[in-house]
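Trying the structure run again after the queue cleared.
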Amino acid sequence: MKNNADKTSELLASLSTIHSKEDFEAYLNTHTQTEFSFSQYYNSILHCKNISLAEAVKNSTLERHYAYQIVNGTKAPQAAGKIHSDIEKGFIRAEIVSFDDLQACGSQNAAKEKGLVRSEGKEYVMQDGDIVLFRFNV
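Done. Tokens:
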């Protein structure tokens, strides 16, 4: 049986060949994996790093935090639509900070004080590692 690292390497190798939404949809139609979920993967990372889920949540500076997967090349309004269609419809702007900058600063407010949080509009293409606060009005 493959371990989590083998499964991750195999998945990343497969996903590196995907360059469009159509390719991704075709991949999903042919590669459904029911035996290994994202939550199992996340929990295995915490286990490997000897971090309890409670400790991971306690150390978060946010009341709630979620991760949404989007296809490379997705613009900010469409990424917002992955959370809820109303956010896409009423999109005003996205306040973006990179994960590395946020981690280095320790909090959203500290990153904002250092000028690392930037405001992006409807044409912004989301990047890997973006932490985003969507501003919208419906």
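The longest strand covers residues 91-98. Worth checking whether this holds up in the mutant runs.
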